[in-house]
Input
Amino acid sequence: MAKTYDLVILGCGPAGERAAILAAKAGRRVAVVERANVVGGTRINWGTIPSKTLRESALFVWAHTHHQLEGIRTEIAEEITVSGFMYREHMVVQRELELINRTLGRYSVEVFRGHGRFLDPHQVAVVDEDGVKLHELAGDVFVIATGTSPNHPDDVTFEGTVVFDSDTILKLPRIPRTMIVLGAGVIGVEYASIFAALGVDVTLVDTRDELLPYLDREIARRLEQELGRLGITIRHGERYQRIARVEGGPPRVRCETTGGDVLEADVLLYSVGRDGNTAGIGLEAVGIEPTARGLIEVNEAYQTVQPHIYAAGDVIGYPALASTSMEQGRQVVRHAFGIPGPLGREGTLPFAIYAIPEVGTIGATEEDLRRTDSEYVVGRGLYRLNPRGQIMGDTGGMLKLLFDLDGLRLLGAHIIGSQASELVHIGQAFLRADATAFDIAEALYNYPTLADLYRHAALEALREKMQRRPGWQPWTTPRSGQA
Output
């Protein structure tokens, strides 16, 4: 006999976890099916937390080798292991897992270990690795939150000694001397910069003609310059033709590109896209057809073609962030069970790239405004002119603010440099408040702080409007910002 629940969730990453907790808090009976031996998904176990832990260690090494102080000497061992850099990761991951398990237990969410597969629109089977059925679960509402996995093309062998993906790269036995990173998306750029900061000679192969094309181009150009300062060689508009293991002691990897180049390195990280984890979950039994990349298409309420079957998180594609996945999980439950709270697709989202240096961005880019023929002004705050930036030794960072020309209302905030992933939330707050350049310029900031860059950028935008509108006097204009 199938066990019956109000809500059955496939996958206990950020989306599944938050959906389960909110529904259980509302008094619903909830079951979660998780095929991994731990909950938390990529965010905790293989991606976000582990990679950011390694990044902090890389920043430490970079600071001690490039910002040495008089009279202080540091020594870095020649042979460095990845595990040696990751000791904090185990503590953070363990704490997060304990917190999730405790919360699921507190609200009586039942967790079933195994692979979930739809039998029909209202039942799923939970099977083990051998396909043996362990449980049958019936539900009124279902959420598919199975996440994604690194893309594995048929002609690339991921053997775990010289060729890795983003889920296995942190299992390297030692830090290599040379590395090829195929794919210059967020994951590729982050790992390329992390390993370069650790002293690895990195070649980053970008399949596109320009780096991260959705970023404001000025920010992207600065990022490319900073990656160059780390010693990274970037090859744009290139793809692999053939990847082969080169035997030796130790073995190496050879990558032949479509442009005719032959690259060799100790290891290769393949990070060209991720595919939805939808194979084998019985979508054909419920009439849902995934895309060629295994992703699931949903409407504004995250419903599939079956209104009682929702999908959320990375498995539905962009933006595929832990933060947005959590909110999607909560919105699914609000919609399905009529729980009060915001509904519909997220609005203006903060986005961060945890490269070295960090990038934080929210709202319109300069290219967006040009495409719509919008009149705007730009204000910039440079880290090299900011006392806190100088103290930190970050001279390449910049905050860029975009305002509409007439009302001087903030339209976008884009940052590259130390703490950009934190600073972008100040821009988010100003955007949500419909703040103007006046509001930002007259806000009080601690001194010295990087946050004070917002004031400098706003003042520069006011000066630009004065140049564009001769005779306009900002400090005699009503604070509504209307000119």
In short: The chain has a mean pLDDT of 89. The domain at 357-470 is CATH 3.30.390.30 (Enolase-like; domain 1).
